Each structure stands twice: as C-alpha cells, then as structure tokens.
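Collaborator request log, item 7. Partner lab (contact: R.S.) asked for a structural prediction of Hydantoinase A/oxoprolinase domain-containing protein to inform their binding assays.
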Amino acid sequence: MEGARIGVRLAAGHAHAALVAGGEVRQAAGRSADDRALSRLLRGLAQGTPVQSVTWDVSAELDPASAGSPVAAVRILPRMPFRGLGSGHPSPLLRALVGRQAAVIGGHDLFGVELAMLDIYALLRDAAEAEAQGLTALALTATGAPGCHDHELVAGELIRDALPQLRVSLSHQVGGLGLLDREAATVINAALLGRAEQVVERCGRVAGGLGPLTSSWFVAGDGGRISAERLRLLPVLGLSATGAAALTGAARLAGVDDAVVGLARPDGLAVGHVRDGLPHVATDLPGPGGVRMAVPQAALTPISGSAAASASAFALLAEHDQHPAVVAVAGEAAGGGDHNRAATDRARAVAARLPSATVLVEPPAELAAIGAAGTEPSAWLDTVLYAETAEELARKRAVVEQRALTLVAESGARLGSERVVSSRALSVSFLRSGSYRLVVRAGGRAEDDA
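Returned to partner:
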C-alpha cells in the first residue's frame, strides 16, 4: 500500500483520524486525544503499513479565545497619533489578547519610500517594558510593510538580540494590504506562538512513533498543507482549516477536481467551491471571534432552514457554477451519533431534491480528517508592488511567484511538481498609477504521492 497517508483532526479532547491510500479510505477511528491514546490510534490505523505522512488539522487546538496568551502590540507609524491609540480594537477577542499597546516612529509608504526613521530606542524601551510586564510575545505592525518590510525586519532583529525570550510576530509575514486586518492577524499570531510550539512538538512526536520515514504536516486555512516550521512561525495560518479540509475531502471522495460542494450539517448547509482540487478561499472573511484577518480561509456560504429550503438555495448556486454538485455529510462518520444522523438525513434529503447528477458523499470517517490526509503542499502570498511598465510588473511578479513556489517545495512538494495555481495582479485604484496588489497561490504534489 504505497503512499499511505493519515489525516487527523484534533478537537475538544478527541481525535478523528483516517488512513487513505490509493484515493480510498482504508481505516478510520476516533478516540480521546491524550498522547498515549493518539499513539495507539495511529498505530492501530497503520497496522504495520508504511505511512508516508500524517497531516494534522489543529485549528481547534489553536483557538485564540482559549489558547491565546496576552501580547504586546506595537505599531510603527510615521507620526504619533494625535489622540493616542484609543481604547483598542472593537473586537472583544482582540482587546483581551492585547495586554499592552504602544506606537513608535517609523514606517514606509506602499512604494517603499521611508516616511520616517525607525526610533529604535523607543522600540527597545517598549519591548523591555512589555517583557517586564510579564508578556512573552510582541506583535509588530509597520505602516507600508506590504510594500517594504525593512523596518519590521530591523525591529524584529533588534528585539531578538536584546530580549531573546520575547517572541516576535511581524505583520509582513502574514501579508495583506489592510492595516487593521493585518494587525489583527499579527496579534492573534503572536498570541498563539507559545501554543503552536507545544502543538507542533506533540504532533511530531506522536507521528514519529510510526517510524523515521513518517513526516508530519499541518492543514492550512487555504486548504493546503504546510510544514511544522511554518506553523511554528505562523500559527495563524492553521486557523479555520477544518472547513477547507472538509471541502477537499468531499471533492476527493466524489472523484472530482472541480465542484460546488454542500457540507451538510444538522442545521443546514455550508456551501463552498473546489477548483483544481483546492478549495476556493478569501482573505476578507470573519475568523475567530468574528475578527477579519488578512489570512486565507475557505469561502463557505451558510444556508439554514429546512432541507427543502437548503436544496433550493443550493440548486441555484450549483446552476450558476457549471461544475458537478456534491453534497457531503460533514461529521465524524455517516450515520454515527445523533449529530451525524441528523447531518446524514439532511444530506440525503437535499440530494434527493437535486438533479440526478448530484453526487452524495457519505464518508466512512470524519470528512475533515479524510481531507487532511489528501491535502497537498501549498502557499499563498498577498503583497503590494509598484511597476511603471508591463515588463517591470512581469519581472516583479515572477519574483513573488518564485517565492511562493519555494514555500511549496519547503512543504514537501515533489521536485518539478510545484506550480502557480493563480496569480492576480490587481490595480489599486486609490493609489497612484502603477500600484498593484499581487495575490499568488501555488501548489504541488507531495513526495509521498503514490
């Protein structure tokens, strides 16, 4: 059974896992998520079969409302706010996570022009005061960082040298054009750095129990997989991964690469789209606590109401999609438990009201665990650049695309399989001519693909 993979979803002290090989679910199980139980779970699934990789959906383990620690938030601005920094973010979650807020002089415009010199003395003073306050992480958000992140890099290096115990999260590593969305993602990322370290170490240790040839990966919110090192640096990428993994699992079980997918739950459907085997994602969607962050996640449209109402709304979406329609049970296993029986009943009722070409998927295991096993290396970059000519735009675009391909390779892509899935250069109308927002999505086939 070459190329066998295991996908695991950790949630609420429980683990749901599936072993997938040759596109089929060979084994599935679930049990409590303590280390010994997890080890027994994986060994029981493998049953002596060489497992190439274990891919984890740990989004529930990274819930910032329960797992996040208060951090210091520092903005790098070209001038100090006239009325101060205010009372904080409107979100209760962000206010709870920001234990200290400060601003220092510095920053660039989106074209890379320095607006003010970085005040390193104020920066180090604020960082030292944050550490003295007992905070263990700091979120740095600089004006213009999507266009030039020099000040964030310098600030990060200075803080690490002076205060090596203080973890630092830099907003340009998260990406995104909007200052508030980027700052929110950076704060949540910083708040999860300690927890991510624990989760990554634990998952790697458990997966390593299957043998030295078994690698450990993590599902990202964009539906691809990322390395342990990348999740340690950017745990915010692991948020909202369950929906993306479920879409991937539904499409894989239906045997299609392009589809409109209805994830059936007891109270309704969540409708998303899959293209080229990857879920459609967006960066302007509410995340944990309703906070909008500059981080990609699956674009899911909720449809509540009766099965008949769900079917009618889903039929309209499917009619305009021009791709196969798939209705899948989003639960631990089709027919298992009251929750899953209700989801299964809804899926069947919805599918019965749709055209006969609709594919009904009743998975033999938790759908997100199946999707986790089937994820492939991915990368998503969202940045701003300035180009006066088409040739300059093409040259700068190629540099960003190559960076995305490098990230895919670092996530275990088979040599030569890396590809740019989409590359969109959007003219930014509110800036001067020649300003573009560049969004690049890249993917590849994993080394362990049979």
